Amino acid sequence: MRIAREEIFGPVLSVIRFQSEEEAVAIANDSAYGLQAGVWSSDLNRAHRVARRLRAGTVHVNQYDEDDITAPFGGYKQSGNGRDKSLHAFDKVTELKTTWIRLD
Length: 104
Prior knowledge:
The chain is of the alpha+beta class.
């Protein structure tokens, strides 16, 4: 479905049934985009396992969009190149310079 394959900015929620963890990951990764993903599970081991396999820059577990400005943010695939927010992002957009001055 188009809603599941394109990068849509919402609030939007699409629900797609799946039979197995493997199928859920395949459906989630079957997109040219990968900005954010959400995993809902009472099994923390499963949540970690699925989060590792999702091709998204941010994965939320049992919540959504409760991130922090100090954590890097960005996507995979066509959802962007690089990261913004956090000190990590400064390295990508900053050039360092050292200036030595003699004061006599």
